[in-house]
Amino acid sequence: MLSISSRILSRNGLLPFSLRSLATASKSMTVREALNQALDEEIQHDENVIVLGEEVGRSEGNYSVTAGLNKKYGDRRVLDTPIEEIGFTGMAVGMSFEGLRPVCEFMTWNFALQSIDHIINSAAKTFYMSGGQINSPIVFRGPNGAAEGFAAQHTQDFSAWFASVPGLKVLSPYDSEDAKGLLKAAIRDDNPVVFLENELLYETAFPVSDAALKNDFVLPIGKAKVQVEGSDITIVSYSLGMKYSMQAQAELKKEGINAEVINLRSLRPFDFETVAKSVQKTGRLVTVETGWPFCGIGSEIAAQVFECPETYKSLKSPVLRVTGVDVPTPYADMIERASFPTSKNVVDTVRRSMKC
Amino acid sequence: MNFAGFSLRNLSPKIGSPGSAVIASRFASNEVTFQTRPYKLHKLDSGPASETTLTKEDALDYYRKMQVIRRMETSAGNLYKEKKIRGFCHLYTGQEACAVGMVGAMDKEDAVITAYRCHGWTYLLGSTVLEVIAELTGKISGNVYGKGGSMHMYDKNFFGGNGIVGAQQPLGAGIAFAMKYRKQKNSCFTLYGDGAANQGQLFEATNMAKLWDLPCVFICENNGFGMGTSADRASASTDYYTRGDYVPGIWVDAMDILSVREATRFAKEYCNSGKGPLMMELATYRYSGHSI
């Protein structure tokens, strides 16, 4: 099943997790490079696109996602803002009302708690409240959720909060193709998009197809990807959770359990159809996320699977969730690690599901 | 009796009274020249014109508009008491000269954004009285099909109608940013109340507006009260026109419509010349409570 090139890659320790994209893989790219390429291309593609945020310009971005862009395009297109979250977020939304297409970076999504009124009340709701007269073609992006050693105030996962809001689109990429294709789609979308990246994935290199390297590579919003096909159990995840899901899938394969791993890519709109199709095939479902359990993404997926008669009837065991621990993130590395899921948690949960 | 430090008696000049001298009038002409009410300036060497000419057409137009808004708001108040309007209803009664005076100096491509005391603005910026009242009573023939209600009405270059106190401040600065980005010779008039003048996001918005020289006019409609709390019980400084610090400001007696108009003309010219943002305080009064 694996091609010669992928065997070479695996021998060199570069085994890519995305088997589908192996078919035409010719290059690898980190998630950071993919995001940078997306921004670079979209700034060129549309005169109205500007990037703003703290340290994005002269300092090239706190996580280097905007590296080189201010040098290339100047302050007019890549703008450093003062440390005034609610101020610059409100301004970015105002810019979008007046026809610009801002990409508003949050150094981390934790700081967007200061901005959240503008994300929700100004951006998400205005198209509805104005009877369709005013739309907000803005992208809010930045690293979300688990990091290492940043403690409670800098490590919260906001996926579930934003995914619940009508009027927003919420995307969360895993690999480099996701990152590039989804960010370009988000910028081109006329609705406000919350784009949740993860810092721990920025440095990870993934193979990318030739198509993904072109400047018109856009992925559809609202479509999940079957990252690996399987038949015994469905694992649904997104962003950093995919890393543990893919590791678990490889581990489980050794003991003869073929898990199908679905990469959601899009939290709102949520692709229930792809999940349902898989659950009806396998009869078992484990959701994986790094955010808190109560009212998390897994809760919503489970509820929808239970409410749909076809998927409910096909279940051989209850839906099980792997989530972060219900605790503000601790600092010391041992307890920090214990508060987030690992691939072992996913494997154990799959085994539990298989036993029912 | 006074509020926010101003004696109320001085705020309603009549023709012929010391506060508003008629400079010249010709019996057979259609124009009169008035003196405007004195302005107070902050970090400005000169301010709006001390004299202005009013044509008969404009006089009738302004009078009509102010009366329509007054009656529309009175009807809204009555409809609310009959429970035909639900939720919140913030009336502009008493503040008519602010909106009508400003619109008298603005052009169609300028932008306006305000808070929830927006019915009068909605009427002036493109909607009919029927569309406003239909929106208030939740009809599909309303300004936004009944989906917004009292606090969320919009039109071309009119960005609402915002429910969250202070939110419109950075939104307005962002609209001004986009105008400058596209090299437009227009301004965004960003209105807020004396209560919202204490919002942190105003400080943030004025910082960025001044940093980047944005054509944003920050206008505090000081009606003496933030909800139920008088201005002097909420603000360490009630000199709202100075609160922009490094942003120049003008205090306007906004019960005089021509003073408002001249100040707005000055503000437009100031922003169009690329000097950056300006702050204005319109000293006015509302005759109803915060909301009914």
TrEMBL record, chain A:
<dbReference type="InterPro" id="IPR027110">
    <property type="entry name" value="PDHB_mito-type"/>
</dbReference>
<comment type="function">
    <text>The pyruvate dehydrogenase complex catalyzes the overall conversion of pyruvate to acetyl-CoA and CO2.</text>
</comment>
<dbReference type="GO" id="GO:0004739">
    <property type="term" value="F:pyruvate dehydrogenase (acetyl-transferring) activity"/>
</dbReference>
<dbReference type="GO" id="GO:0005739">
    <property type="term" value="C:mitochondrion"/>
</dbReference>
<keyword id="KW-0560">Oxidoreductase</keyword>
<dbReference type="GO" id="GO:0006086">
    <property type="term" value="P:pyruvate decarboxylation to acetyl-CoA"/>
</dbReference>
<keyword id="KW-0496">Mitochondrion</keyword>
<feature type="domain" description="Transketolase-like pyrimidine-binding">
    <location>
        <begin position="29"/>
        <end position="204"/>
    </location>
</feature>
<keyword id="KW-0670">Pyruvate</keyword>
<dbReference type="InterPro" id="IPR033248">
    <property type="entry name" value="Transketolase_C"/>
</dbReference>
<dbReference type="Pfam" id="PF02779">
    <property type="entry name" value="Transket_pyr"/>
</dbReference>
<protein>
    <recommendedName>
        <fullName>Pyruvate dehydrogenase E1 component subunit beta</fullName>
        <ecNumber>1.2.4.1</ecNumber>
    </recommendedName>
</protein>
<dbReference type="Pfam" id="PF02780">
    <property type="entry name" value="Transketolase_C"/>
</dbReference>
<dbReference type="InterPro" id="IPR009014">
    <property type="entry name" value="Transketo_C/PFOR_II"/>
</dbReference>
<keyword id="KW-0786">Thiamine pyrophosphate</keyword>
<dbReference type="InterPro" id="IPR029061">
    <property type="entry name" value="THDP-binding"/>
</dbReference>
<dbReference type="InterPro" id="IPR005475">
    <property type="entry name" value="Transketolase-like_Pyr-bd"/>
</dbReference>
Automatic annotation (TrEMBL), chain B:
<dbReference type="GO" id="GO:0004739">
    <property type="term" value="F:pyruvate dehydrogenase (acetyl-transferring) activity"/>
</dbReference>
<keyword id="KW-0560">Oxidoreductase</keyword>
<keyword id="KW-0809">Transit peptide</keyword>
<keyword id="KW-0786">Thiamine pyrophosphate</keyword>
<protein>
    <recommendedName>
        <fullName>pyruvate dehydrogenase (acetyl-transferring)</fullName>
        <ecNumber>1.2.4.1</ecNumber>
    </recommendedName>
</protein>
<dbReference type="InterPro" id="IPR001017">
    <property type="entry name" value="DH_E1"/>
</dbReference>
<feature type="domain" description="Dehydrogenase E1 component">
    <location>
        <begin position="64"/>
        <end position="291"/>
    </location>
</feature>
<dbReference type="InterPro" id="IPR029061">
    <property type="entry name" value="THDP-binding"/>
</dbReference>
<dbReference type="Pfam" id="PF00676">
    <property type="entry name" value="E1_dh"/>
</dbReference>
<dbReference type="InterPro" id="IPR050642">
    <property type="entry name" value="PDH_E1_Alpha_Subunit"/>
</dbReference>
<dbReference type="GO" id="GO:0006086">
    <property type="term" value="P:pyruvate decarboxylation to acetyl-CoA"/>
</dbReference>
<keyword id="KW-0597">Phosphoprotein</keyword>
<dbReference type="GO" id="GO:0005759">
    <property type="term" value="C:mitochondrial matrix"/>
</dbReference>
